[in-house]
Amino acid sequence: MAFQSGEEQVAYAKAESTIGTAVVPAATDAFRVTSFEISPNYDRPAVPERRNTRSLQERIAGRKTANFNINLINRPSGTAGTPPDYHLLLKHAFGTYANASSTSDTYTLLKDPSGLGLSLYRLLEGVMEGVYGGVIQNITFGWSGDGFATIDISGVGYDMLWAGTDAANGAGSSTTALIVDDGDFYGKYGVVKIGSDDNSGAGFQITAVSGQNITLGTAGSWSDDDAVIPFLPSATLAGSALYGTTGSLSLDGGSSTVSHISGSVQMATGVDLFSRNFGASIPSGVILPEGRSVSGSLNFLVEDNGNYAILRGEAANKTAQDLKLDIGTTAGSICRIEMPKAEIDTAPLSGGDGLIECTLNFTALTSTTIAMEDEFKVTYL
């Protein structure tokens, strides 16, 4: 037996044409991660009936969802007009994507993103796990002068998918009916390889599990005792990580630059899954129960001839800033964050031991009452 270590830091994302029906990823759907955690949220309510005991006697299976958290380094593709590897995460967080060939990839906000669902996967040796019917609920861009630029993404899915390692119990020929020694090693929508057959590099998707009986989405052939192991295609990856020594911040749409130490911007998408239907154990669709919100912070060193004083005054007067941040300076490796109407709030200075710092929080608003859904935009150049 070999214990797992954290050497494989790659995940996969695939758009679902029907939310809640997983899609098998290809090599080009891979992206690097620093962490990818999936938390099954399986409701197990205790039955409140009691007999002549103070002990809990019974629980039942309730509803299912699966939460996910993905942390990655902001890594443009290196080629202007080619989106980053984690393109689908950005598209599903914002809702709208536009490509300008050899120039840029732009992500803007969509009023109704309820039709966007993701299948997410991660593979370690001998173990696969993922989420299907996934929607993104939060995305955070972070940057600092002495660290990597990062993107953190969290959301919720219909349920987990998984696959472990077991063996075929009996031979099969051109069939979708696979019998294994123990079906608990596999879940619906897991992807496997059987013996040496990986279905021409696509893998075999599991569409149902019942005891030892597994139904495959594509017919295959195998011999008795062939290994049935989790499978994903070899990752195709591109791009270089962004570090905080290159870039610039402007609060007037790019006319001038402002010195600062670090910052972040967070978006709560206001998207959730509907899981209250009678007769259903998993969600039945996507809902938009709350409005979208975009907020963030900028951390400054206070200088006697710097911008802090005027920002304090503009914050007090509710003067909106046209925030434009470039992370990176080389064509093909620039992430531009724009908020045309960011209102900065006042904040106290830090303590008096050492350099004085100040963190100013801000909230992004739509630029006008006509140009809706424009409070936040990200472009890769």
Radius of gyration: 24 Å
Q: Compute the average pLDDT.
A: 92
* Count of DSSP strands: 25
The H/E string reads: EEEEHEEEEEEEEEEEEEEEEEHEEEE
**Which percent bin holds the helix content?**
under 10%
Uncertain segments are: none
Structural class call reads mainly beta
- Enumerate how many helices there are, as a single number: 2
Report the span from N to C terminus: 47 Å
Instruction: Give the oligomeric state.
Output: single chain
How would you sum up the global shape? Answer: globular
Strand % is: 35-45%
- What can be said about the biggest beta sheet? 17 strands, antiparallel
Supply database-style keywords.
381 residues, mainly beta, 17-stranded antiparallel beta sheet, six-stranded antiparallel beta sheet, globular
Account of the protein in words:
- Helix content is 4%, strand content 45%.
- It is mainly beta and 381 residues long.
- The chain is globular.
- The mean pLDDT is 92.
Q: Topology of this structure?
A:
Elements: E1 10-16, E2 30-32, E3 35-42, E4 64-73, H1 87-94, E5 95-100, E6 104-109, E7 117-124, E8 127-144, E9 150-157, E10 159-163, E11 166-167, E12 172-179, E13 191-194, E14 204-210, E15 213-222, E16 227-230, E17 247-250, E18 262-268, E19 272-274, E20 285-287, E21 293-301, H2 308-316, E22 320-327, E23 335-344, E24 357-364, E25 377-380
Antiparallel strand pairs: 1-2, 1-7, 3-4, 4-9, 5-6, 6-25, 7-8, 8-9, 8-10, 8-18, 11-16, 12-15, 13-14, 13-16, 14-15, 17-22, 18-21, 19-20, 21-24, 22-23, 23-24, 23-25
